[in-house]
């Protein structure tokens, strides 16, 4: 990908050079026509010498002096070389005008200003040409550096996301297997049903989770399958309410398994074997935003219980920063009576991201 982008960059640069210099060398054709409309080739060659001198100065700087001298921070040497180059080219240009470009016979020559006036004009134009060459070359250098920086950031972000996904998969599977293991101790029939539900989850975790984004409909389907699995495990006394308000054909891109850690956290900390418990899960899609609101009864685990270590939530925060930096809001709060916990996540999806998915 980087190689293709670099080739396009070089092709664009070459095209611009050809067009600009083609126009520059072609301009004398419009200024050297006589009254009959035919080209005065003597005048054309005379004007072409100016174009050629600028061409030489521009590319000696562009291809040699700037990359080999200026970019290596030899500024004094760069200035000295250009002084010598401009003097040589300006003398050569005067020689071109006076001898090579078929000057008219002496008696026909009009009265001309002193020679030094032409030298001043030519040297000033050549200094401008050097400045233009430096400006263009430095702009292209900055553009190439910026491209490399963006590619490096992109590669680093992709590596971090892959690492987080690799951590999340075993974390999620371990929690799910622990839930199924708990069922085998007292209800083998439910355990078998749970294993069937787990197979649906595994397909998503192993395949769709490898993508950076998936359609929101797929993520919701996965969440629903996970909730059904948890319904098998928990007591019927636990009130689990869900509300999904999304378009049936929604293609809004969302990071896979982004919400599951929040839901896992609700099941870890929201259920008590002896006290009334509830879990409310709401996921809505509105315009360019996705809202996830999870409320549950609050029963914090004790220090000996490692199931609520918070690894999943920390991964959620890291993924949000990598994928939705500046485009999300996540609030966690506990009610004043300490009996209800809420997690509210809002993700803003730019319009141009609506078409990420096929």
From TrEMBL:
Which InterPro entries has this protein been placed in? Answer: Bact_2-comp_sensor_kinase, HATPase_C_sf, Sig_transdc_His_kin_internal
Q: Name one GO cellular component term.
A: membrane
Ranges annotated as spanning the membrane: 12-32, 44-66, 78-96, 116-140
Q: Which GO terms describe its molecular function?
A: phosphorelay sensor kinase activity
Residues of the Signal transduction histidine kinase internal region domain: 159-236
Alphabetical keyword list: Kinase, Membrane, Transferase, Transmembrane, Transmembrane helix
Q: What is this protein called?
A: Histidine kinase
Q: Which organism is it from?
A: Phocaeicola plebeius
